[in-house]
Structures are given as C-alpha cells and as structure tokens.
Amino acid sequence: MTFTSITLDPGASPEIGAAYRAVWEALWRQGHLPPAVLELARLRLAALHQAREEMALRPPWAAELDEAKIAATLAGRWPRDPAFGAAERAVLAFAEVYAQDPESIGDELAADVKAHFGEAGLVCLVEALGFIDGRLRLTLLFNHLGATR
Fold first, then answer.
1. pLDDT grade, residue 26 (50/70/90)?
2. How many whole angstroms from its chain centre is CA 91?
3. Mean pLDDT computed over 28-44
4. Cα(58)–Cα(128) distance, rounded to whole angstroms?
5. Torsion of CA 136, 138, 142, 147, to 10 degrees
6. What Cα–Cα distance (Å) separates residue 85 from each residue in 36, 91, 116?
7. Nearest-5° angle of CA 92, CA 97, CA 62?
8. Taking a C-beta distance cutoff of 8 angstroms, is the pair 124, 131 a contact?
9. Which domains are present in the chain?
10. So what's the pLDDT on residue 149?
11. What confidence tens digit (pLDDT) does each residue in 46-91 have?
12. How many whole angstroms from its chain centre is CA 131?
C-alpha cells in the first residue's frame, strides 16, 4: 500500500489513526485560512519534500484551484506568477521558510500573513504547517519502509 497524507491513518494504530484523522479533518474546516490557500501550502511542502504521491493528490478542498496554479506552486514559480494574490504569496513564502528552517521565520513574513488573516490566521498556519509537514514526513517514511520490505 502506498500512503499519502490523506490515507496515512491505516498505517498507524487505530487510536493514533482516529486522532490523526480528526485533527486532519478539522484542519480543512477551520475558519481562519481558506482551505484552498492551505492546500497551496500543502502542495509546496510536498514539492519541497519531493513527495510525488502528495503532489499528485487533488483533494476535495482544492476543487477551486486550477491546474496552472497547482503547477506553478509545485514548480516554485508562484512568486512571479500573476495568478497568485498577495494573501496566497504570504502563505507560500511563510511555508517555504517553515519547510527549510522554522526558526528563521522573520517578523516580516509573520506580519504579512497577519495582514491577510489576522493573528488567529497566523497561529493556525503555524499549527497547520507543523501537522501537514509531520504527515508528509510520516508518509515518506511509511512508503520507504513498505518499499524496502
């Protein structure tokens, strides 16, 4: 079985799987960041981790994203692509630095996210990125372990 961040739960114990599923579902229903914007961040993290299965996913909460915007996100062309609004750019810039070194996130990046989504949106983004990044890393690990058996 190949795992993705959406299908990760069966790879864990039932208790952990249920808890992970509940948090994952709540992440996409929270009211601080639009699901499509958060999906762009998920896709960017997937690209930075070179997680092919993740990059190919098109979950229901991403239905409003067109393939050109998804491709630009995956390829890292989002900073120069006019299809991206200021709020999307703020989240993607924050996500890129988060993926490389969360401690190096500066006040300017945080202020840019807060300007679009408020303090609660910034906190939600930090928590969401941590959870998404963790799930991505687990799927990569589970898939590697499955491939080596």
1. very high
2. 10
3. 96
4. 18
5. 50
6. 12, 10, 11
7. 25
8. no
9. 9-147 (1.20.1290.10)
10. 47
11. 999 999 888 988 888 888 899 999 999 999 999 999 999 999 999 9
12. 8
Question: Average pLDDT, stretch 22-48?
Answer: 94
Buried b (16+ CB within 10 A) or exposed e, 53-89: bbbebeeebbeebeeebbebbbeeebeeeeebeebbb
Tell me the residue type at 110: A
Residue owning tokens 């941590």: 130
Per-residue pLDDT tens over the stretch 93-146: 999 999 999 999 999 999 999 999 999 999 999 999 999 999 898 888 888 877
What is the three-state SS of the chain?
Answer: CCCCCCCCHHHCCHHHHHHHHHHHHHHCCCCCCCHHHHHHHHHHHHHHCCCHHHHHCCCHHHCCCCHHHHHHHHHCCCCCCCCCCHHHHHHHHHHHHHHHCHHHCCHHHHHHHHHHHHHHHHHHHHHHHHHHHHHHHHHHHHHHHHHCC
